[in-house]
Amino acid sequence: MSGSGQGTGQAARPKRADARRNEKALLDAAAAVFVTSGVEAPIREIAAEAGVGTATIYRHFPTRADLIVAVYRHQVEALAEAGPALLVTEAGPHAALARWIALFVDFVTTKQGLARVLQSDEPCFDPLHAYFLEQLVPVCTRLLDAAAEAGEIRTDTGAHELMLAVGGLCAVAGKQPRYDAHRLAGILVDGLRAGATA
């Protein structure tokens, strides 16, 4: 699974629209399998989920580490893109913030299985946490600022501390019966209304 020369050449050329769609389908399939079977799931299971052969997986992602990094980045990017879209489609900035935090909870709870892998000696995993912060803190800041400017929430809460708080609420998810991280994160976001200026 080295994929040396051919993979480098492919990476240097812009991908066609159909190639990007195919890669997105693979990443979505891998993400779904990682949630149900863990990141060590057989490649054939991911291929079956995506409806392709295993050779197609290896052509796009020569190693499992390549696939894990791509899935992580793909889902961070989707979460980053959701923030501005929610400001347009939701009833107001607080509703957009609440919906985005719900998506953030989904992301965090389904990524808990990656913790052991991300702490391994693979150097390709090292930049992922920084990438997570670079992509998502500005989005959360924009949502908080919009809600604060509308007078819907208090103004003294930062994006990083809110994301840390929600991450802490998610840490127990799946380990305790009747523990609902979504419900608790919703209570936290509703609590931001206390002290609002409107």
TrEMBL record:
Keywords: DNA-binding, Transcription, Transcription regulation
A GO molecular-function annotation: DNA-binding transcription factor activity
Pfam families: TetR_C_43, TetR_N
Residue ranges annotated for the HTH tetR-type domain, each copy included: 20-79
Domain of life: Bacteria
Location of the DNA-binding region in this protein: 42-61
UniProt-recorded name of the protein: TetR family transcriptional regulator
Lineage, broadest ranks: Bacteria, Bacillati, Actinomycetota, Actinomycetes, Kitasatosporales
